[in-house]
C-alpha cells in the first residue's frame, strides 16, 4: 500500500513539472500572462519587413508575406493557438518597428532587428536566430572595389539602422571619410543608387542580395556582425522567455537551419 502511494506521488510530481515547461515535446503556453493576453487578442500581432526578400517580403502578385521571419511568426502562432494562420502582419521599417512595439500595436518584432547592447536597454530580445554582416552594393560601372575607394562618396542607409555606425567606424580606421543619406525603405535606397543620388547602398549582406541585379555587385568586404533577434516590449519578460525557449528549440532541432536553406540565405 505504501509503495502504491509513493508511485502515485512521484507520478503527480513528474506531471506537474512537465506541465510547467513542455508537453509532448511542445512548449506549454499556458500560465503565462503575456501569452494569455495574446490569446485574448485572438491573433499574434507581428511587425515584419515587407521589402526584404528572403526575410520578410510582401509578394506584389499575391499580397502574401514570404520569408524566414514570416515562417517564424507562423510557427509561434502554431505554438500559441495551434493554428499558424492566427498571425497578423504589420509592415515595419527600421524607424517604425520600435514605436509600434512601444505603443502596444504589435506583440513582437521579427524584422531583421539587430541585437545591440544599446537596444537591449529598451527592448527584450530572444536568442539570435540569424547572423549577418553589413555590406555594400555598388554599380559595376562605378569602379568601386572596396571601402578605400569611397572618399567623398555618399552612402545610402536606412533610417535608425546600425549600418551607418558600422561603415563609419570601418572608414575611420583606414582614414577614409564619406557622407550618408538616410531613407525610410530599402527600395528607396536602391532607387537612389540606380539614379546616381547615392554611390553605395549599405545594409546587411543577405538583404542586399535581394536587390542585386545585372548592373550592380555586392563588394566582398563585410563589417560588424549583425545578430537578429525577436524583440518584445521591455515589460513583457514572460513573453520573451517563452519566445526564447522556442528559438532555442528550433535552433537545436534544425527547424531554423531548414528555413535558412529554404529561402537561400
Give a nutshell description of this structure.
With 265 residues, the protein is an alpha/beta fold. The protein has helices spanning 2-21, 33-41, 68-81, 97-102, 163-174, 186-195, 205-209, 237-252, 255-262; strands at 22-23, 26-27, 44-48, 51-52, 56-58, 65-66, 87-91, 108-109, 123-125, 130-139, 154-158, 179-183, 200-204, 216-218, 223-228, 231-233.
Structural commentary:
This protein has 265 residues and is α/β, with parallel strands linked by helices. The chain has 2 domains: 37-131 and 227-263, D-Maltodextrin-Binding Protein, domain 2; 133-225, 3-Layer(aba) Sandwich (D-Maltodextrin-Binding Protein, domain 2). 38% of the residues lie in helices and 24% in strands. The strands form 5 sheets. Strands 10, 11, 12, 13, 14 and 15 form a 6-stranded mixed sheet that branches. Residues 1-31 have low confidence and may be disordered. InterPro entries: Bact_solute-bind_prot3, SBP_3_CS, Solute-binding_3/MltF_N. It holds the Pfam family SBP_bac_3. This is Glutamine-binding protein (GlnBP).
